[in-house]
């Protein structure tokens, strides 16, 4: 059930979660195509895998354009002769509230996360179908895409869209024995360094210290390595019957997210006009309305951010 002889592409794998995924895939025996926009960062990632006895090469290019997706697949085939696994991890943030978000803020995030996932999966899926030996596609989502988050219109849209595409691709690629799943990670990375709620835990991670049980158990919050095992599992033959799923990982916690389901249904002869809805909506659905955003538990006093200096 190891990944020996397999070849993987991991986008956005120069650092953070992507690097952890690439290193774990290599540790399990896969040869890895690293991707980053920074040549020095990509080279360092490749060196970290090779120094541990693994195989890695790099493609330095921004994810989003079809040309980059084609270049990534070509690098796997030219260097290692095949492709078995794609992990779409590349991403950026441009956080701000709706009324301050520019077109560029929105388009940049959508292009990297959503279009980049689409173009890379399309290129890999096309090859998997030609290769005729199945394949594994793992797309990285986010709790924001599942629940929403203040100030992240663009990111929420992209990550929700990724999970929607995953469900569709799982259907379309089933006959080719290609599995497609979404991973919903929660981990200390550069993307969470600016969140005061996580400050104490990120500081511990940066120092190489063990995160406290409150972080790992209550919050399901850990390091990138805590998510990498799930990615490698989904890339393996052991996960051949797992497809179309959204699976969360972080700290000591593993979660299977549900697909959206109808929670209440009502019927009205002749349909629902304004007057009937005004009178009846509250009694029918008032107690069934769904929550938005993630409700975080209260931080224990020892993990509270220090008050700002006056």
Automatic annotation (TrEMBL):
What Enzyme Commission number(s) appear in the record?
1.1.1.100
Similarity comment text for this entry: Belongs to the short-chain dehydrogenases/reductases (SDR) family.
Q: Which residues form a coiled coil?
A: none
GO MF, one term, reads: 3-oxoacyl-[acyl-carrier-protein] reductase (NADPH) activity
This one is known as: 3-oxoacyl-[acyl-carrier protein] reductase
- Give every Ketoreductase domain span: 6-194
What InterPro entries does the entry give? KR_dom, NAD(P)-bd_dom_sf, Peroxisomal_Beta-Oxidation, Sc_DH/Rdtase_CS, SDR_fam
Organism placement in taxonomy: Bacteria, Bacillati, Actinomycetota, Actinomycetes, Micrococcales
Q: Which UniProt keywords apply?
A: Oxidoreductase
**Plastid as a keyword?**
no
Which stretches of sequence are listed as region Disordered?
Answer: 289-310
Which Pfam families does this one have? adh_short
Q: Which domain of life is it from?
A: Bacteria
